[in-house]
Structure formats: C-alpha cells, structure tokens
Design goal:
This protein is of the alpha/beta class. Helices cover 17% and strands 30% of the residues. The strands form five sheets. The protein has a seven-stranded mixed β-sheet. A seven-stranded mixed β-sheet has the order 10-11-12-13-16-14-17, covered by helices on one side.
C-alpha cells in the first residue's frame, strides 16, 4: 500500500501554496489586496474651478424690509448658486457690493449703510455672472422716520388671480404713477389664489408684477384667508402643529422694529414708518399658537402689541392700519353675518379709534367701499346713523363740488377714522342684496381697481384708480390748518408768511401764489389771508409793525 494517496498528495500541495500566499500577504500592501475585492464605486463628484453652472432667474428681484439705511433684495434661481448684489448711486457705476457664499435657490442679500431717501441702482447674480441689472433696477431708501415730505404708497387688495383684470388694474395703476416714484406698496391679503401655495404665487403674483413694481418699490404685505389656504390653523411655528405656508416663506417682514414702530417679533403683524406716516400691518385670519386667539380677541398677543405700538407712536403725523377682513362691507361679503367681520367691528376697532387712527384699509370683499370720517359704530348696518356716527358730513372729494371740503383734524378735534375696502385689484364679485353698506359714502362693485395714498406733510390724499384708468373716488384729510397767527416786528424788517396747508394759494394784499411769501408792511397792523382754490382752508396773519 502506497505511503500517500493521490488526494493526500494534492492536499499537501494546497497547504504548501496556502502558506506561501499567507506569507506574501504579510509583505504586500493591504490596499493591493483590496483591489482584488469587488466594491461599489463612490459617487462621482463634479468639480469646477471657481465655477458653477449658470443659473436662470425664476423670481424677482423684489424688495423687502426697507428702512432709511438698508434694503433686503430677494430673488430665486433654477439652480444652486451664490448671491451677489452690486449697487451704486449711478446706473453705470455699481461700485459697491454685498455677497453671500452659501449655495441657495432662494437668495436674500441685505444692503446696509445706505443713505436715507437716496436712489440706488443695483444688479443681482452670482459671483461671476449677472442675472439682471440695468437702468430699470433701482430703489429709493425710505426717509428718516418722522421726516415730512411727499410720499406715495400703492395699495393692492385681493390681487393674485393671474387674470385679465389683474393686469388691467396693474397697467392703469402704473400709468397713473407715471414717472413719479412710489415709496412702497402694501398688500391687503389674498395675494395668491386659490390656496396661497408657492406654485400659485409664481404665476399669480410674482410673474405679474415683476417688471413694473417688484424690482423698484419695497413691499409690505399682510396675509388673507387664501394665503392660509382657508385653513384655520395657528400662524406661529409650533413643532408638529406649525404653519408652513408660502406667504411666510416668500416675504420678509421688519419684525424687529428696524423700519419703525415697536418690535413685534412675529411675521404675522408688524409696523413701519414712511416719513411722518406710521403703518400697522395686521393678520385678521391666523390664530395664535398658545391661546388660539385671533386679532380681534383683545387679550391676544397681536391686540396687546397693537396697543403698545399705537401708544408709542402718538407723535406721528398720520397713522394707517391695514389688514384683510373689513368691519363694514356689503360687497361679496356681509359684515353683519360673518363671524370674523362682526368680531373685528364689535371688539377690535374700538382700540384703533381710541388711539385716533386716521385710516383703516381692508380687502376681502371684492368691491370698493369708502366711508366718511366716522366714529363709534360697532353694531350691525341697521344701527348706523349718519348724524351720530359721521363726524363730518363732507364728501371730502376736495374737487370744487358742493360739500366737498377736506376732513380736518387738530389737537382739539383729532377723532375720527375713514374706512376703506379696496379688494378688487384681481377679483370682482356679486354684492349682497343690501349693498351698498349704509356707512359707506361711495361704493363700486362693477369695476376693479387699486388705490394710492399720497401724503405731503399735513395733507393726506387717497385715490381709487379704477380699471378704466379713471379716479372714481378720492378724499382729502388735513391736520392743523386754518391757523390764526399774530406777528410783531420792527419797521424795515421783512416778514415771511407761510401757509399751514399744502395745495394752491391765493393771498390777499399780495399777487403771489406760492406757499410762502415775504412782505414788508407799513407801520401799524396789516392782515394777510391765504386761502385754497376751493375756499375750504384759510389762514390769517396779523402783522403788527412798530417804529422802534
């Protein structure tokens, strides 16, 4: 019998080779052996040398959270990219820039250290390319809070429809504006139908206003029920319950008081100043997370903030509040039957009237409605009494027609509010059977429109620009006019007399028609009177000249 069988011989050979392989594996680098083991390849990383794919511009630019020394510029691209804004006071010389190196789709660049009430040109893009920027890309910083000037603020209610009416109203509004600059524009809610989604905001809002308004004029919005998708849930971001709606993602609000007013620290409501005008933007639909209160609940966070803000801004020349749901309307909504509207009227507007708010502007009802200067009507329409609730029976049209002089307020008589519903910038609808509301002097349910607020010093003009380009309603309010002034000077010294109002002037004892005139009356007492062109406003100056 042989010492080794064939199988045993092969086994000894295999053991020998196995020992050789193990010996070599110790000497060879481990990564060399690893190459013999099949592995899943790592993801391929695209590397660029200081370069990214060129993005396209999807949205904007648009201007947010404006102040007298800063401006936030936002835009959206179709690919991740970095953010850079070049800017300067001359269109052909954008000698300053502000950048953000983060790769994003939604871009936000804040320009700081700007001069008040100054025009800046700008361009937007990434670090190596420009998406947009020519002589039509410009903005003007806000004036210093409290400073008097001539200011224009556009007002669009219920605009986001992407229909012919929206574009017609826009075009007529832009035509009225002409070459004049508009300091800002405000939104009254329902800014994008039907559910306020981001996909709806793009065609219904951003695409419609991108060329004419968004790139030039800072925007201060308020939300409506359609911006919330008509869903009754809290507006404060609470884990597992929070809001996640496009309105709060698309807009940046000055909630830290940077634009004026008391900080709200809540994007649902905030305040800001444009010169001597103080604005409050409020949320009439959302609920508070901790309490489930709405704006009209007097213990709500919002109502308590409104009180603090109004208390702190009593020194402002004008106070304007705006939100979505109106306290008075018989347009496409009925303020006698809808719970939110009733509660706003019975509970909330008492606060604003107590603080002498001059103007309240709302949307929601797809009509235009405007009251006279009124106060104290908190009940249903049937309880409105014009003699009791209207503090001034004038139409305030201020156009030379009968009973059309401005509403006038002064330190002794500063009460009264004008209520406006201007909710037809994008939608019209059938009014209620009891339309028009008894509290409204002028109503229009047949034509869409947007509004313009124009303030110059102590004069406020409100105009409704209809879809046919006609100003179909307007009113004027003045403060601290009809002055009587006594002046005593020595002989030979000229005296400058200045009218207390803004408008057209007719002076007695002088052929001049300017707001200020210089006179050198003789010794004795001379009376000078200046009147407006409609004989509504009249200042009297009694100048006494002495010999010594």
């Amino acid at each position: 019998m042989p010492l080794f069988t064939v199988s045993a011989t092969y086994e000894l050979i295999n053991i020998k080779w196995l020992r050789i392989i193990l010996f070599l594996s110790v000497l060879m680098p481990l990564d060399c052996l690893a190459q013999e083991v099949p592995t899943t390849p790592a993801p391929r990383v695209m590397r660029y040398r200081n370069k990214l794919p060129h993005p396209g511009l999807l949205r904007g630019p648009y201007l947010q959270a404006a102040t007298s020394t800063s401006m936030l510029i936002r835009w959206r691209t179709d690919a991740l990219s970095r953010s850079r804004v070049r800017y300067g006071t001359t269109a052909g010389n954008l000698d300053k820039m502000s950048s953000d190196s983060a790769l994003v789709l939604d871009h936000q660049v804040k320009l700081t250290g700007l001069l008040p009430r100054t025009k800046y040109y700008y361009s937007i893009g990434a670090f190596t390319d420009t998406l947009q920027g020519d002589e039509n890309n410009y903005f003007m910083t806000l004036p210093v809070p409290g400073e008097e000037g001539k200011y224009r603020i556009g007002i669009f209610g219920d605009c986001g429809t992407n229909n012919v009416q929206q574009r017609t109203v826009r075009d007529q509004f832009v035509k009225y504006l002409g070459n004049n600059y508009m300091d800002s524009w405000i939104l009254l809610g329902d800014n994008s139908y039907e559910n306020g989604t981001d996909a709806q905001y793009q065609p219904n809002f951003f695409n419609v206003y991108k060329d004419n308004l968004l790139k030039k004029y800072p925007l201060f919005p308020a939300p409506g029920n359609h911006d919330y998708g008509n869903i009754d849930f809290p507006y404060v971001n609470v884990p597992n319950r929070g809001y996640d709606i496009a309105y709060y993602q698309n807009f940046s609000m000055p909630i830290a008081g940077e634009s004026g007013g008391v900080p709200s620290n809540n994007p649902a409501f905030y305040s800001f100043d444009i010169g001597n005008i103080h604005f409050l933007s409020l949320d009439s639909y959302g609920r508070e997370s901790k309490s489930a209160y709405k704006m009209y609940d007097t213990l709500s966070e919002q109502a308590q903030w409104v009180k603090r803000d109004l208390e702190a801004n009593k020194n402002k020349g004008w106070v304007v509040a705006y939100w979505h749901h109106p306290p008075y309307t018989m347009g496409t909504h009925d303020s006698d039957k809808e719970a939110d509207l009733i509660k706003i009227r019975t509970d909330f507007i008492r606060i604003l009237e107590r603080y002498k708010v001059d103007l309240i502007i709302c949307g929601h009802s797809h009509v235009y409605e405007r009251s006279k200067l009124m106060q104290g009507h908190f009940g249903p329409e049937a309880t409105f009494n014009a003699k009791e609730h209207n503090l001034n029976q004038s139409t305030a049209l201020y156009n030379g027609t009968d009973n059309a002089c401005p509403y006038i307020k002064d330190a002794k008589n500063d009460a009264g509010t004008v209520y406006v519903v201007t909710g037809s910038a994008g939608k019209l609808g059938t009014p209620k059977a009891t339309y028009p509301h008894d509290a409204m002097f002028y109503s229009n349910a047949t034509m869409g429109g947007a509004s313009m607020l124009e303030v110059e010093g102590n004069r406020l003009d409100f105009k409704w620009i209809a879809a046919d380009g006609v100003i179909r309603d307007q009113f004027t309010m003045m403060k601290e006019v009809n002055k009587k002034t006594k002046i005593k000077v020595k002989r030979g010294k000229p005296v400058t007399l200045t009218a207390s109002f803004n408008g057209k002037y007719s002076w007695t004892n002088s052929p001049q028609t300017s707001k200020s005139i210089q006179v050198s009356p003789p010794v004795g007492t001379t009376t000078y009177t200046v009147k407006d062109q409609y004989n509504c406003v009249r200042d009297v100056f009694e100048v006494k000249v002495t010999r010594f």
